[in-house]
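Async update (no meeting this week)

Hi team, since we skipped the sync, here's where things stand on the single-chain job. The sequence we agreed to prioritize is pasted below, unchanged from the tracker. I ran it this morning and attached the output directly underneath so nobody has to dig for it. Comments welcome in thread, and please keep replies under the output.
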Amino acid sequence: MQTQPTIAPRTAASTSSGFSLIELVFALGIIATAVLGLAGVMVSGMRHLKNSPEHVIAAQEAAQAVEAVFAARDSHKLTWAQIRNEHGGSGNDGGVFKDGEMSLRKGGPDGLVNTADDLNTIESMTLPGHDNLMGTSDDRTVVLSGFRREIRIRDVAGEGGQLRSVVVTISYPSGSGGTQTYTLTTYISAYA
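Output:
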C-alpha cells in the first residue's frame, strides 16, 4: 500500500528570507527623508558660503571702528566727553560720532569714521581672486557701496558716566537679495 505524502501547513515558526513590499517602502521612505534633509543642509551651507566674504568684511569694518575709538581715547585725540554720539540717548550728548546709519565713508583727518570730517569717498577692500592668494594679478577691489555703519555710544547705567557701551552695527547686502547685519558690542572706560 502506498501512502500519500502529507504536506505540513506553514506556521509562524517557519522562516522566510527577503523583504516584504511594506518593509521595502518603509526603508525607502527613511532614506528619502535623510537625503532631503542633507540636501537642505547643503543649500543652507551654500547660502552661507555665498555671504561669507561680505560677513568677513563687515566683521573687519566693525572691529576697525571700535579700535579707532579706543586709539582716540588712548592717544588723547578725543576727550572723554567727546567719545559719544552727537545727539545720543539724551538728545544732546555732544560727542563727535554722528547718530544713525551711514555709508562706509573713509575717515577724515581725525582718523575716525562716522564723524563730521569723513571723506566723501566710499571705502573699498581688496580681496583675493580665483587663486585665493593676495598680491597676485587676479585680486579684485570691491567698493563697499552697499554697506552701512552705525556707531552707538551710550553711558552704562550705574557707572557714574565712567563706562560706556560702544555698539557698531554693519548692514550689508546678502547673496540672497536681502540685508544682513553684523553687530559688535564692547565697553570703554574713561581710564586709558
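Quick observations from my side:
The chain has a mean pLDDT of 88.
The beta strands are 102-103, 124-127, 140-143, 148-155, 163-173, 179-189.
Reply here if anything looks off.
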